[in-house]
């Protein structure tokens, strides 16, 4: 029987830049994801 490698807890683990959330700044007139999906659906009709 093999032993599974230990699992690091979140406190012991370093954060890497690629794991950080992506920040998106919307400007006036920009569409949200929901608005873009609605527009796409209407365009396909």
Automatic annotation (TrEMBL):
Residues 8-21 have a biased composition (Acidic residues). Residues 1-21 are annotated as: Disordered. This is Uncharacterized protein. It comes from Bracon brevicornis.
């Amino acid at each position: 029987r093999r032993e599974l490698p230990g699992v690091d807890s979140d406190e012991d683990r370093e954060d890497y830049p690629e794991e950080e959330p992506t920040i998106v700044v919307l400007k006036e007139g920009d569409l949200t994801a929901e608005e873009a999906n609605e527009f796409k659906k209407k365009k396909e009709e």
